[in-house]
Amino acid sequence: MAEIRLAKLAHSYGNGTNALKPLDMTWRDGGTYALLGPSGCGKSTMLNIISGLLKPSEGRVLFDGQDVTDKDTGARNIAQVFQVPVIYRSMTVGENLAFPLVCRRVPTPRIKARVEAIAERLGLSRHLNSRAVALTADQKQLISLGRGLVREDVSAVLLDEPLTVIDPQMKFELRKILKDINREFRLTMVLVTHDQNEALTFADTVVVMNHGEVIQAGTPQELFERPATTHVGTFIGSPAMNFLPAVREGDRVLVPGAGLSRTAPADLPTTDLTLAFRPEHAVAGGPLAGTVTRIWFEGADQVLALSVGDASLRIRAVAGAETVGAIVRFDVPQDCLRLYHQGRLVA
Amino acid sequence: MKTLYLALKYLAIALWSAFVVFPFLWALTTSFKSANGVTGGATWIPWVQYEPSLQGWQSLFGGVGGINVVKPFYNSLVVTLSASVISITLGTLAAYALSRFTFRFLWMRNSDITFFFISQRIMPPIVLAIPFFLMLRSLGLLDSLPGLILVYVALLMPIAVWVMVDFFNGVPRGLDEMAWMDGCNPIITFWRVILPNALPGLVVAGMFCIIFGWNDFFFAFTLTFTETQLLPVAIVSLNSSVTPWWSLSAAALVSIAPLVVLAFVVERFLSKGGLAGAVR
Ligand SMILES: Nc1ncnc2c1ncn2[C@@H]1O[C@H](COP(=O)(O)OP(=O)(O)OP(=O)(O)O)[C@@H](O)[C@H]1O
Ligand SMILES: [Mg+2]
Questions:
Q1: In chain B, what are the domain boundaries?
Q2: CATH homologous superfamily for A244-345?
Q3: Which of A73, A134, A158, A233 could form a disulfide with B180 if both were Cys (CB 3.0 to 4.6 A apart)?
Q4: Which residue of chain A comes nearest to B196, CA vs CA?
Q5: Cβ-based burial of A133 (10 A; exposed 0-12, middle 13-18, buried ≥19)
Q6: How many angstroms does the Cα of residue A44 sit away from the middle of ligand 2?
Q7: Which fold would CATH assign to domain A4-231?
Q8: Which residue among A18, A23, A41 has the greatest number of ligand 1 atoms within 8 angstroms of its CB, and so is best to mutate?
Q9: Atom 30 of ligand 1 has which residue's CA nearest to it?
Q10: Homologous superfamily, domain B70-237
């Protein structure tokens, strides 16, 4: 268990690919983090640098204030779970789980107790003596995880898209196990994922990356309510945030023809402005009106696509009797309207 | 349709088996024939109709005008097995290093070094005969088992390296990384994690080494005189102006026996799924 700090960290691969741009970041001890971002944005690169599989081309990695940049993977005491389960084929499940302790010369009785406890926790007790190859993909992934957990003093558990090859049904189970384990063992956990649901439900801090940069790090709530860029707003939340081109008129910013407006901060430029709000933040009834162009049924809710003036946007509403072509009245509270200039949050 | 297919399949297998088995059958019957039996020909049924004689087999075990095959057989066994074990051990270590770590020697990179190993087998053996002879002479190892083992290691190790580099390249690197993360040093990683995954490769490499080592005649012939004789050389010394087919057949069977046993063992291993799914 450790606090992990990345200081002025940057990495480019030998072939010139600039995978990580210089960044500073701290992973709190015992925190759960989700790394979210499109393919190729440098998520795996960051994890591999933390675990020591990759040496950063610039900057330092610190565990609890101690510089570990030049230390080997083994000395850092990190557990990493990859997309494809990695298991030792020639060993049984029990031997797989015991291996990290065997390598670290832990006394045998201690190993036995530890392996049994972890197997119990992960629901692998029945399989301890089976050959690891014979298990299903999700059980193999649990073995990978278990090999990290048997070490009581593991600095952090890094999970690089561990649920991609798992059945959707098992995914839910595994996610729950991960969450429970984090609570029980107070481990620092970093989960890389493409799935925003996974990120938002698992982590207390979500880190959104793009093109080798950290764009925003915050609680799921913050990410949802105040996306730092239009990219984050589009990436997180379903349906995506509404982004409407806006203009400045005096001390107000408004969407022409739609009736949406808010006060403008003093030094706001006049071009390249966007007003945005979450479909979830629209409330029924009010001064705004739009024609329903499409309806998505979502159980108790429905998502309505509206055309308001020249703009089209989506709102989430209680399931009701609206039909395509009907006029719907709604409002967006002032404190839920976000203002972006050149794609970056202004207010 | 299905029956026809099955019938054709069994016919094909039967034909192929006959093709493979007949030389053995031929050698086996010939080894029990006398000169008359070999040249006379049969009236009705070949391979059965002849006067059996133990002359061929006797000449292999110290009979009149023959040799004693026991000592050369033992020598061949010792040389082949020792050289194979040494080559596999060294070759596997070298192959793992070449597959996992980056080396640079002058202008040569990993793939060049690997090719350098293999290139040792591209030269015709005759090129090596004189250097080997001189080297063994200066070491005082001519005509001795250790000398032969040394030379055979030089011949077999390239094969082991070649086979094993390929095999290790097929074992995912993620496995090494996981082992490091679990706190293994490179030696334990190799021994406990990677090697078990490369077991089928070891079997293949071992098989090649044993076959090449066992069958070599050239170096066994050029680097020994009278003290140390390997089986292929001993068998050749059976020959005379009148070819003793019976002794040669018996000798052929004796020299082939270990390889047949090896083939059965390896076949067992393969059919038990030793190769299947060795690598994820
Ligand atoms: N070994 C490598 N050599 C050169 N370039 C690499 C290497 N590994 C990754 N890259 C490049 O670095 C960038 C970041 O890769 P990285 O694997 O960190 O992305 P990622 O966010 O994990 O993507 P994914 O979601 O697909 O796993 C990519 O542009 C990728 O092409
Ligand atoms: Mg990745």
A1: 70-237
A2: Nucleic acid-binding proteins (2.40.50.140)
A3: A73
A4: A90
A5: middle
A6: 4
A7: Rossmann fold (3.40.50)
A8: A41
A9: A40
A10: MetI-like (1.10.3720.10)
